[in-house]
Give the backbone structure.
Amino acid sequence: MHYRSKIFEINVPPSVLNARDLPNATALLTAAYIVFTLSLWWVKWSYPSLEANADATRAPVFSPILQLVPAQTLYDPWSLVLSNLVDVKWWKIGVDLLNLVVGGSFIERNWNSSWELVRFLLVIGSVSNLVVVLVTILSSAVFPKVRLDTPLDGNYTMLVGFCIVYKQLIPETTIFHIRNLPLVSKNFRFKLLPIFVLVVSTVTQLMFLRHFSELLSIWVTFLCSWVYLRFFQVLPPAITGAASRSLVGDASDTFQLIYFFPDIIKPFLSPIFNMCYWVFCVKLRIREPFNEDDVDTGNSLAEQRGAKVITSQVEERRRKLALQVLQERGTV
């Protein structure tokens, strides 16, 4: 499907509209998402709240099995997983369902692994939910207004996490093309999608909705998703093109956390990110630091995906490596 107007152009491949071609994991997750979301709505419609008196406001109806309720998480720990597959807002149901069908199909085919998509959506999503619950419980000890008996939105992996995957896999691919409008970028590429979603979500939560637990969930999901893709995801040789070894993480220069943010704040964020990397990777060894081969392999794979690798950094690293080799030869 192709749509074109005087100022706007968008292309939608016909294959994304064919539900019969859904890969296994995408089809299973989509079915589970529809079943659990409809089940939650059925619960909300079937069991109306009881009012204490005629003037009282109805208490919300929720399911601690399907929804993330901090006070109930210890008794219903499966809510950490199941809440990744339910939504209660109409707009989010539409966005997440479309993102799961279209984006999930693309990601599963690109990763060539049904289990990897399930792990990213459910395991990483559950870790994000656990972090949000713990922070909420700790916050309630400091801020009495923080309630532990109301459900949190535990499903932001499809909205936020998938955007990070798109930036990794198709960074320079254009989402839509705007023409004939001054002061507006003509091409909106997937590499801009994560920061766009984060900014819009943050501004909306701070200025209008003021659901700070959801804002926390958005940013925790962003960080957990990036950490997994950057440091822990295992890509088999069939995807990386390597003959004998799998690739752990994405060490490419373009996938550094600093390049998710606008240039104007990079000087302030760079020392913080460098310190975090030194503490967790170099000092604590939670993950082994990337070596030169890891970075070169990551850059090569990123270039195959269309990413524009920062040439100056690559040349500087190769210059240092060549100098190190010459020094080692001189000492032999």
